[in-house]
Amino acid sequence: MKRWRIPLAAMIAGILIVMVLAMPVKRAFTFTETRTDNPELVYLPIKDDSEFQIRYVHSIFLTNVYETYRVQSDNSLKFLTMRYEDVGIGLPAYAEEEETLSVTKDGIYTLTYKDKVIDSFVLYIGDVDAQLAFRYKGIEKDLKAYLERGHSYEFCVKKLTLYELMKGVNLNGKAKKRTESGTHNGSK
Hints:
Blueprint: H1 2-21, E1 24-33, E2 41-45, E3 51-57, E4 64-71, E5 77-84, E6 99-103, E7 109-118, E8 121-124, E9 132-136, E10 139-142, E11 152-161, H2 162-167, E12 169-170
Parallel strand pairs: 2-12
Antiparallel strand pairs: 1-2, 1-11, 3-4, 3-9, 4-5, 5-7, 6-7, 8-11, 9-10
């Protein structure tokens, strides 16, 4: 009977460890690599404020575009506004139904969405030197320092497990260093 106590205790301890590691504990903005068997997870924990921006330089006009979102209580994303300087490819000159478009004296267009809610979106990280940033709580993070160029990432909000927090790359941590070939050190 004594010989079963140690294996049983070890098995119970192992089950408890697995349960703790698999329990969702922290709500975060997540970037999960798509089209791969071993997806990389990059995340940023969410604090009180749920509003954030994606800022990028438009590939043709070479001007900043700001997309502003708010995280809903069910982790969906409400698209609030898009601000830009030029109209054309991807940057509308008129508003659709449930949208309004205004132009300031400085020539800045603001497209406001009435009730556009999505669960997630995919970001393609182009292999060009145009800027791509994530802005949250007054701090801007260069996404190209954390995400692999030429790869796609699904962006969403979800509760991460302790295992995902340990395995993933925190945007509050150090950016990955690039080798001369343009890939990250330690990656594939």
